[in-house]
Amino acid sequence: MSKDLLTLKGVHTHIGAYHILHGVDLTVPRGQLTMLLGRNGAGKTTTLRTIMGLWKASQGRIEFNGTDITALATPQIASMNVAYVPENMGIFSDLTVRENMLLAARGAKHAGQMDDTRLKWIFSLFPAVEKFWNHPAGKLSGGQKQMLAVSRAIVEPRELLIVDEPSKGLAPAIINNMIDAFAQLKASGVTILLVEQNINFAKRLGDTVAVMDNGVVVHSGSMKELAEDENLQHSLLGLAI
């Protein structure tokens, strides 16, 4: 079994006339949390969407668990125990929290068939999901919607969790709750790929890091090393952690 659960090799992505990814090389080690950092417009979200098959790679290869998934459709990739939480969260506003969760629990036809032990674990991570179980999801706050989005992604066991900017627009207390939840998810054996702009979030959670600029990965290595090297932070991100 390879130590890397996910690898991208020379991946290019075109969206219409625009060439967004210019040969992305990325490795996501099994059982670790990999941060994908970079300035706005660097290609981070495009990378996630290309991994999930929402946009097709025009060149290169994407492997998950040793299987070439480059040309697979999104439902096929999701069926391999891969979950994706997009930046807009993808919540169904007119449905209740329970109904949103049920839609993601592919093995259940009604709420009573959802894994009760797993639900209790999710409720321990995100108490608001239990509190607003029968409320319309559209009535939740931004932080509560983000909790629901992550909860929905993990309502069934996942081998890989891909999340785009989970802390965006959240209050500090909610961010701390989210950090604790991702730490527990990682401890449970889930491999996580996370795009994040909150550098404190990245520093506290990341094992490995890849930094993107202009559609390519320009740096990869230990998150701890990047967090301790102020000159490297300035050169890659224009900021200091």
Automatic annotation (TrEMBL):
InterPro entries: AAA+_ATPase, ABC_transporter-like_ATP-bd, ABC_transporter-like_CS, BCAA_Transport_ATP-bd_LivF, P-loop_NTPase. Keywords: Amino-acid transport, ATP-binding, Cell membrane, Membrane, Nucleotide-binding, Transport. One of its GO terms (biological process) is L-amino acid transport. The keyword Nucleotide-binding applies. The keyword RNA-binding does not apply. GO terms for molecular function: ATP binding; ATP hydrolysis activity; branched-chain amino acid transmembrane transporter activity. This is ABC transporter ATP-binding protein. Residues 6-239 form the ABC transporter domain. It comes from the Bacteria. Pfam families: ABC_tran. Belongs to the ABC transporter superfamily.
